[in-house]
């Protein structure tokens, strides 16, 4: 009886090929996980601006009705003055909000978010500053800037030239009020014979 040698074809990966694949996956993971964390933090910081939109509109409405801006530093005063709750109460990404009047036509909103609410490292924070300037032509024009962890700030807060016009309805209301005042003045003015 003769023993025949059979050639066995092994199909699969060698150990070296397996190690190369594991190394490639490790490198991709080392790059992707921090990038994903930054993406999540930037998304949360954009939510700050969405959560603050109601306050911006309320401040602009208040300016139209009362013809001035007013400062609010106590959380319970927001409802009393602007008719809305403090955005920090309902928001998961805002820790503190302060409104500072800088005269009749200027206002500043300071928004503070700490590391825990934005998925940053403990001790880190992001402060967004919204400066509002009132004009009869445009209503309130908001300009955003950032302090702290600026790399996580929304793009329009990192861009120095970014401006947002808020409350176009207020602009229309202002024109309507000024037109009605002008009409009433012309009606009251005595005509010269």
CATH homologous superfamily designation: Glycoprotein, Type 4 Pilin
- Looking across the biggest beta sheet, what order are the strands in? 1-2-3-4-5
CATH architecture tag:
2-Layer Sandwich
Distance between the termini: 141 Å
Helix percent band: 40-55%
Write the layout of secondary structure elements.
Elements: H1 15-66, H2 77-82, H3 87-90, E1 96-101, E2 106-114, H4 115-118, E3 125-135, E4 139-148, H5 155-158, E5 163-166, H6 168-188
Antiparallel strand pairs: 1-2, 2-3, 3-4, 4-5
Outline the structure in words.
The structure is a single chain. The protein is an alpha+beta fold. The chain has a single domain (16-173), classed as 2-Layer Sandwich (Glycoprotein, Type 4 Pilin). The protein has helices at residues 15-66, 77-82, 87-90, 115-118, 155-158, 168-188; strands at 96-101, 106-114, 125-135, 139-148, 163-166. A hairpin with a 4-residue loop joins strand 1 (96-101) and strand 2. The radius of gyration is 29 Å and the shape is rod-shaped. The N and C termini lie far apart (141 Å). Residues 168-193 have low confidence and may be disordered.
